[in-house]
Each structure stands twice: as structure tokens, then as C-alpha cells.
Amino acid sequence: MQRLLDIVLSAFALLVFSPFLVPIAIILRLTGEGEVFYVQQRVGRNGDLFGLYKFATMLKNSPSIGTGTVTVKGDPRVLPIGRFLRKTKLNELPQLLNVLKGEMSIIGPRPQTQRCFDAFPQASQAEIIKVRPGLSGIGSIIFRDEEELMHASAEPERFYDEVIMPYKGDLEEWYVARQSLRTYLLCILATVWVVVFPKSRFVRRTFPDLPKPPVALADLI
Predict the structure, then answer these.
(1) According to the model, what pLDDT value does residue 74 have?
(2) What is the value of pTM for the model shown?
(3) What is the total count of domains within the chain?
């Protein structure tokens, strides 16, 4: 049932958002480095790598500059139009094609680069690869302001590896253990809700049994 919903919802979303896709593609083509799409290798189901589609929001060689595949607030590698696309999440729309191809689901653990996936605890890695990665998911909903959190840390990469990723791993394990049609639909609702009402406590009220955040994150998420 979830795969059927993935196909129907992703096809419908592509149709609905098509008026935005063409203008964005034209703007990207005429600005920055002239690239429209960026394909990045991510870890998917069963640990297999796949090419994740995004609108190009960063310099071409950004993975070889600065913090690599970890992006922080105000990252100089992000192109001017890219900041808007990342803030509104419009840069993620091409991943609807990944959903149609069966490489991703609408809801699931967010697919990570190998470097970021390796930052998960081993137990979390083993659970995460049991399911298709998602366009959205409980980890990305809770950490919707991840770049802001890292910016507030004196050592952003260390904070990412030692605080953010272990807790995000707990959240993704929670999803894998409780995946169901109900959880799938509620996560879609929660995704839309936090975009419209980013300060809302809707997610915590909807999923009261979510793992508790560590002390370092307790007042931040």
C-alpha cells in the first residue's frame, strides 16, 4: 500500500509543482554556474548507493571544499538563489523522480551521503537500511533547522557527529520500528504542518513516544 501511495502522491506532486519546476530550472540555468540539477550518491535501502536528484544550490566542487557534504548556516558554497531554494525546500522537488523510480519513499529516513551515514551509530545504520529512504521523515522533521543548530556550535562538525547524528539515528530507528500506514500519513501531515507552523509542538504531541533528545539538544528542538 505504501509503495502505491508513493507512486500516486509523487506523480500528483510533480503535476502540481510543475509550474514551479520550469521557472526554477530557467533561473538556475541563467545564474550561478549554469547547472540545473545536481546528482549526489546517497546510501539507500540495503546499503546500496543511488543517485539522488536535487536542484543545484551549491558550487560544483563543494564536496571538496570546507565541511564537505555537511552544510552549515551561511555556508559560502551555497549560491544566492540556492539559499532561497534550500530554505523553502524547493531544491528537494526533483527527488519525486527518485520516488517514482522506487529508490525512495515519500516518508522514510533521509538518505545520507556515505560520510554522513557513517556518522550514525552502527545499530542505527543496520536498521535504517531496512527501508527505503524518504523525501521526508521523522529525522528531517525534528531537525528541520539543522544548519541553524550547527551554526550555533563552536565546533559544528564535532557537534554534528557526536550530538546530532546519534540522536537522529535514534529517531530513524523509531520510525523503522513503527512504520505503518498511519505513521506514514501522520509524517506527511507533520511535514506540511512544520513548514507552515515551524514553532509548533505538533510533532511531539502527535508522536509522544519519540526518543527524548540528549541534554545538548533538549532546549533546541
Answers:
(1) 55
(2) 0.85
(3) 1
